[in-house]
Structures are given as structure tokens and as C-alpha cells.
Amino acid sequence: MMPKTHPSLSNKQEIVFFPKMLNVAAAAWLTVAFLGQLLFGVYIVIFYGGSTLAGEFDRWNEVLPHGYNEGDWKGNLVVGIHVLLASVIVMGGPLQLISRYRYPRFHRWLGRVYVLMAILVSMAGLTMVWTRGAVGDTTQHIGISIQAGYIIGFALLTIHYARTRQFGKHRNWALRLYMVVNGVWFFRVGLMFWLLINRGPAGFDPKTFTGPFLTALSILTYAIPIQLIVLEMYIYAGKHQGKVFQIITSIIIFISTIITGIGVFGATIGMWLPRLP
Q1: What is the spatial distance between Cα 8 and Cα 263, in angstroms, rounded to a whole number?
Q2: What is the separation of C-alpha 158 from the centre of its chain, rounded to a whole number of angstroms?
Q3: CA torsion sign, 59 to 64 to 69 to 72?
Q4: Do the beta carbons of residue 117 and residue 48 sit within 8 Å?
Q5: Percentages helix, strand, coil for the chain, rounded to the nearest 5?
Q6: Are the C-beta atoms of residues 147 and 183 closer than 8 Å to each other?
Q7: Strand partners, 210
Q8: 259 Cβ partners below 8 Å, 6+ apart?
Q9: What is the DSSP letter of 56?
Q10: Full-model pTM
Q11: Is-contact 218 144, C-beta < 8 A?
């Protein structure tokens, strides 16, 4: 005969197991994202910092068309500030997430810097897109503009809930800010994942950087961020004990981890390393 399991014990084990699976999935994704954003941040510092120190400003145009325009010192300054602050945001985001409990004072100060940088970067990005020209079509530009609105709005809400000491809401809005402020990173990772699995461009013209795939990708990373949708699923699953939804959310996050890992690998060998000295 099979030993009987006490009903209350069985239910308790289920309650413990599924949140644990959800947290493992989130930790796996964060680990991959942390590594990918660290690599991206190092690339930004070395490429743009190195070319700037060497006086080779025209090298900016290898990555950002119209990134450097001869004689336009104001516009060039905006681009430089945008790139510099972007490196702080890319590397500071994961540090902000993991320092919350162990280093609260560092978390608070970095949080203030992070939120301010996020607002400044989004405003500089808007200026660059609509005044200096950018690759892609109008849909991509509108998507980036919508993303800037998300960033500013989420940043202000993050500050508000921190000041009013509503730390649960503060945490959730900080996570939402993290997801939208890294829209450009998600776009690059998604693009490189697509290029790897298709073994080259598919669904878009690499010369004009336009096409149905890029339109869809810009919508899903900027205008209607899929990363934000997955986050909302994670937040909801963490608050409720519906095990089916927790399983589905965990599986989606694990799949996202695989896609992110492949995209980071592709971006590293295809975009970042080749441009470094």
C-alpha cells in the first residue's frame, strides 16, 4: 500500500514549489541579462570612449548614422551625453536589482542616479531621432518616442512611491522602468537572435534597415514592450497562488532566457567584439 500524504502537507509543498520555480526562472533570466548588459556597457565605454579620446569622432557613424556631424557641436554633445549616460544605465540596472537587500545605501544612491539618467537619456534619444535623422522607418521612430514616454512616466512613478515609502509599488515600478529603459538593448538582442536562427537577414532590408520584421520588433520592444508584458505576468504570478499560471509564466521566462542568451551571444560576436580595438 502507498503511504498516505497528509492533505495539508501536500498543499503546502505545492505552494512552496511553484513560487520557487518562478523565482528560479527569474533568477536565470536576470543572470543572462546581467552578463549581456555588462558586455554591452563595456562595449559602449571602450568603443565610444576610445574613439572620442583618439579624436576619431567620425567612428560614431559606424554605429549611429548621423551620430557625428562636422560643425554641429550642440548635436554632437547631445549624442555624446546620450551614449555616456546609456552606459551608466545599462550596467547600473542589474546592480540596482541585486543591491536592494545587501547594500541598501548604495541601492538608494544608485537609484537616484539611475532614474535621473533614464530621464535624460530618453530626452536625448528623442532629440536625436527627430532632429538628426536615424535608421529605420517612421514606425520605428514612433516606437522609440513611445518608449521615451514610458521611461519618463515610470521614472516619475518610481520616485513618487519611494518618497511616499510605498516600497512594494516602488519595487514594481522600478522593475517596469528597468524593462522599458533597456528597450534598445532588447531590440539588439532580438535582432541578433533572429539573424542567428535565420543565418542572415530575413524579413527586412539590411541596407535601409526597414521591413516587416523590424517593424514588428520595434513595436514589441518599444511601443508594446513584450518584456514588460512578461514582467507583469511575473508580478501577477507572484501575488497569486494559481499554480497553472505560475507554471506558464515560469516556462515563458525560461524560454525568454534561452532567446536572450542566444541573442547576447550573437550580439557579442556579431556587433560588439568586431568594433573593439
Answers
A1: 44
A2: 17
A3: negative
A4: no
A5: 80, 0, 20
A6: yes
A7: 205
A8: 189, 190, 193
A9: -
A10: 0.82
A11: yes
User: Cα 99 to the chain's mean position, in Å?
Assistant: 18
Name the one residue in this structure whose C-alpha cell is 541596407: 207
* Closest C-alpha among 253, 232, 267 to residue 29: 253
Q: pLDDT per position in the chain (277 positions), as tens?
A: 434 444 444 444 444 556 788 999 999 999 999 999 988 888 888 887 777 777 777 776 666 666 666 766 666 676 777 777 777 788 778 788 777 777 888 888 888 888 988 898 888 778 778 776 667 788 888 999 999 999 999 999 999 999 999 999 999 999 999 999 999 899 989 999 999 999 899 999 988 889 999 999 999 999 999 999 999 999 999 887 788 999 999 999 999 999 999 999 998 888 878 777 6
| Cell output for 59 | 567612428
Distance (Å) of CA 32 to CA 220, 254, 260? 20, 11, 7
Residue for cell digits 499554480? Answer: 243
Ranges of H-type helices in 2-137: 7-53, 73-98, 104-131
